[in-house]
Amino acid sequence: MNNLLRCLTLAGCLAFPFGQAAAQHAPLIANIGARHTTSLDGQWQAIVDPYDVGALDYRAQPLKNNQAFYKNHKPQSESELVEYDFDTSGQLHVPGDWNTQRESLLFYEGSVWYKRSFDYTRSPKNRLFLHFGACNYLAAVYLNGEPLGEHEGGFTPFDFEITDRVREYGNFLVLRINNTRGREQVPTVNTDWWNYGGITRPVTLVEVPETFIQDYFVQLEKGTTRQITGWLQLNGPSPQQKVTIRIPEVGLSKTFQTDSGGRAEFSFSADLTLWSPENPRLYSVEIAGETEQVMERIGFRSIEVRKTDILLNGKPVFLRGISLHEESPVLAGRAWTDDDARTLLTWAKELGCNFVRLAHYPHNESMLRMADYMGLMVWAEVPVYWTIQWENPQTLHNAENQLNEMIARDHNRAALIIYSVANETPISDARNRFLRQLIQDAHSTDPTRLVSAALQSNEVVERNRITVRIKDPIAGDLDVLGNNEYVGWYSRRPEEADSMDWISEYDKPLIMSEFGGDALFGYHGDMLTRWTEEYQENLYEHQIAMLKRIPFLSGMAPWILKDFRSPRRTLPRFEGYFNRKGLVSDHGEKKTAFFLLQKFYRELQNAQPPK
Ligand code: GCU
Question: Most buried of 98, 162, 240, 341, CB within 10 angstroms?
Answer without folding.
Answer: 98
